[in-house]
Amino acid sequence: MAEALNKIGIVGAGQMGTGIAHVVALAGYDVTLYDVSPERAIKGLERVSRTLDRQLASSKITAEDKAAALSRLSAAGSVGDLADMDLVIEAATEDETVKRKIYATVCPVLKAEAILATNTSSISITRLASATDRPERFIGIHFMNPVPVMKLVELVRGIATGDATFLASKAFVATLDKTTTVSEDFPAFIVNRILLPMINEAIYTLYEGVGSVESIDTAMKLGANHPMGPLQLADFIGLDTCLSIMQVLHDGLADSKYRPCPLLVKYVEAGWLGRKTNRGFYDYRGEVPVPTR
Ligand SMILES: NC(=O)c1ccc[n+]([C@@H]2O[C@H](COP(=O)([O-])OP(=O)(O)OC[C@H]3O[C@@H](n4cnc5c(N)ncnc54)[C@H](O)[C@@H]3O)[C@@H](O)[C@H]2O)c1
């Protein structure tokens, strides 16, 4: 029998951290959301509340479900609020230095038996685990965006991840009504190993003038039956996250086919990170998204 995990901490109240908080609280767990400042965590909870409102409006949940989920959610005032968590899921910025710093702060606070998981899209679980005091109790639990909608969660074991950690994580994810796949610990795992080079190639297609933003997205939606175009998807993921994943693939596999497109680098340098900054391959500041190239 896998051990029960009841109190769940989440580090990072961005798109993914709030999405995970939403789904985990709806499933009946107590959730504490932590970010660099309590204000950011509170803003994250406000976003969860708005998403719950939308689910209520479309009858996906009841008013009781919403009230119960909100009553289980709290914003951490400080890292000390994670002290009695059974599982902490780190969903902070896709940057190894940032994640290592977080583990240095969070690990001393956690119970010895707490599981620490990362939602990283690409970074080595084995290497991240080595920056913690608990490689056996460390695992990749990779949710997809948007978390309330997407059915898949990739589980990634580092070289030291223990069986008990793996089984408890798998059982936990099953209670969220998600399907798990297990990936070996190689750069970007399964989903992003396949998805991100496709997105990067779409950006090269734009960069080389083969097609406009609209042509590329329409071509892939109608020609390959993708639910959204690759550039729209890149904006949705976050262009900083896309670039980080391509860098991890490029560095980790040492193959030039993973070279990040210079146009992706330029957008990130401009701070045009996609939906989260209201501008990326599309400008979202008006009524309808307008292509930026
Ligand atoms: N965006 C996606 O589609 C997607 C999908 C799956 C997994 N992921 C992964 O999830 C993680 C988060 O991605 P996101 O899209 O939510 O990013 P985001 O930029 O929306 O949010 C990142 C959050 O981390 C916080 N943060 C940064 N440093 C911190 C620190 N020291 N302590 C606490 N919080 C800190 C930021 O304040 C921010 O709220 C990344 O590892 C990413 O690769 C992203």
From TrEMBL:
Residue ranges of domain 3-hydroxyacyl-CoA dehydrogenase NAD binding in the record? 7-185
According to the entry, every stretch annotated as the 3-hydroxyacyl-CoA dehydrogenase C-terminal domain falls at 189-284
Could you say which residues bind NAD(+) here?
Answer: 12-17, 35, 94, 99, 121, 145, 276
| Listed PROSITE patterns | 3HCDH
Gene Ontology biological-process entries: fatty acid metabolic process
Which residues bear the site annotation Important for catalytic activity? Answer: 142
Which family does the record assign? Belongs to the 3-hydroxyacyl-CoA dehydrogenase family.
Entry protein name: 3-hydroxybutyryl-CoA dehydrogenase
Q: What is the lineage of its organism?
A: Bacteria, Pseudomonadati, Pseudomonadota, Alphaproteobacteria, Hyphomicrobiales
